Amino acid sequence: MQPKSDTTKEVTLEKSPSGTWVVPIKPGRQLQPWQRLWLITGIVYLLALAGCYYMLIPNLQRIDRTMVFAITEEVKRYEGMAFAGESPSKIFEAASAEGYAAWIAKLRTRYRIGPEGNEGFNRVEKEYRNAISDLPVKRSLGAIICLIAWIIPMTLMYAAGLLLNWIRRGRSL
């Protein structure tokens, strides 16, 4: 067995455009530093957009909460001290546990809201149904906007990186 220092290694050299001899680049595509920066920036930007999408686009729970608190405001129109001192999260938990229709019927009986309250309660119900029916469209549109908001800046950034790399190299693409 030969000692490590006695082993020979074959190296192939190529002449570069500047006239110096260099080791040729392996056939596999390697990312340049600016491309690595672009990739990391793209990932961070995508995560930021996903976070904004999650916070801004409505979901079923937010729509339910909005409806419950619209009902509480409607009840307060007839009984100003209704829900005084109650935690909003407890109100929502009670409404979702009982079922919204049963909860609303119980409130109307408890605070003696008769037919005069139908207009307000019907308005809240209509808004709730519209919000539920619009939810898939809003979510799809939000996802498309986020995708476009990611693709356009990242494409421009990649093109700028290519241009700067071309200028730095000083030769044709």
Describe this protein with a few key phrases:
mainly alpha; 2% strand; two-stranded antiparallel ribbon; 68% helix; 5 helices
Explain what the structure shows.
- This protein is mostly helical and 173 residues long.
- The protein has five helices and two strands, in the order ββααααα.
- The chain is rod-shaped, with a radius of gyration of 32 Å.
Mean pLDDT equals 89
Count of helical stretches: 5
User: Which structural class is indicated by helix and strand composition?
Assistant: mainly alpha
Low-confidence stretches: none
Instruction: Enumerate the strands of the largest sheet in spatial order, edge to edge or round the barrel.
Output: 1-2
Q: In which range does the helix fraction lie? A: 55-70%
Number of spatially distinct domains = 1
Q: What is the H/E order?
A: EEHHHHH
Q: How many strands, what sense, and barrel or not for the largest sheet?
A: 2 strands, antiparallel
- Termini separation comes to 49 Å
Integer-rounded radius of gyration: 32 Å
Task: Please provide a brief summary of the model.
This protein has 173 residues and is mostly helical. It has one domain (33-165). The protein has 5 helices and 2 strands; from the N terminus they run ββααααα.
